[in-house]
Amino acid sequence: MNIIQLIYECAYFIIRFSGISLFVRHVLARNRVSIITYHKPDKNFFEKHLTYLSTRYNIIPLSLLSDAIHTKNFSNIPNYALVITIDDGWKQNFDLIPVIKKFNIRPTIFLTAKLIDTHRKFWWTVCSPKDNQALKKVSNQQRLSILKEKYDYYPEKIYEDIRQTLNQEEVIKMSEYVEFGLHTCYHPILTQCTYDEKEKEIIESKQVIEKMIGRPIDSFAFPNGNYDDKDLEILNDAGIRIARTVKTGWNDVNRHPLQLRNTGVSDNGSLHKLASELTGIPVFFQYLFLK
């Protein structure tokens, strides 16, 4: 652990044991629903996190929260309720099944539809971290043009060396233990897309995943958390009932169903970090400075 990591870990320790974490859980989270988001956590860290979370929160499926918000009835939502979501559909998610079964939970995995069951790659994995951040701020067509010119990347390109995402067989097997939601077709930044691009990414992703698993999908997570009123309009027209942002906060009966708040967690963080992230403080500053 280097000096920067040590400083951060000390900060997490202070947040966890200073009373802030306890205050947030008993005051802000007690009668609301917390949502946390992973991507590709290691199963051992995931188990440690769930051991911690399961003694402090009541873990519920996203569909239960969806029903409660739409009916304006939170009577079936327990105190200290928490929803676990996992973004993108990385192949490593399949390894989480034993842990999911052990804790008898039902997380939601938001699938990037046209990467699932392929050897395509997530666009940000082929470029530098600096370009990654810069490309989120240009138009969708500019982003694709730069990726093609600089990295010989285009969304449909097949890479024989590695499979990044779940395949169809794994998705079908996991459907017994998880709920699935949508995360667009190729994970663009929706606010940088034209209306037609937005519509295609949302509607086609729904068609692809519903055909794959043979059941309706009505939940969505915004790539990178970015969205605007047009996105909400398309989601509503497409029959999406619930959508998760990355805005920091908790959810109650009055939360807009297509603008759920999130407290965010790191895939493989320490328990000190997990406890501090549940307060919403680290993720708030993370997105404040990134945007």
How would you sum up this structure, described in words?
By secondary structure, the protein is of the alpha/beta class. It has one domain (3-118, 163-290): Glycoside hydrolase/deacetylase (TIM Barrel, Alpha-Beta Barrel), CATH 3.20.20. Helix content is 43%, strand content 13%. The protein contains twelve helices and eight strands. Strands 1, 2, 3, 4 and 5 form a five-stranded parallel β-sheet that branches. Strand 3, helix 5 and strand 4 (108-111) form a beta-alpha-beta unit. The protein is globular. The mean pLDDT is 95.
Provide tags for this entry.
43% helix, TIM Barrel, alpha/beta, single chain, five-stranded parallel sheet
Question: Which oligomerization state do the chains in this entry correspond to?
Answer: single chain
Q: Averaged pLDDT, please?
A: 95
Low-confidence stretches: none
Distance N terminus to C terminus? 28 Å
Estimated radius of gyration: 19 Å
CATH topology: TIM Barrel
Number of helices: 12
What is the helical fraction, as a range of percent?
40-55%
Q: Which CATH architecture is right?
A: Alpha-Beta Barrel
Helix-strand makeup class = alpha/beta
Question: What is the topology?
Answer:
Elements: H1 3-17, H2 20-28, E1 33-38, H3 43-54, E2 58-59, H4 62-71, E3 81-88, H5 97-103, E4 108-111, H6 129-135, H7 140-151, H8 168-174, E5 179-182, H9 195-213, E6 219-221, H10 229-237, E7 242-248, E8 260-262, H11 271-277, H12 281-290
Helix pairs in contact: 1-11, 9-10
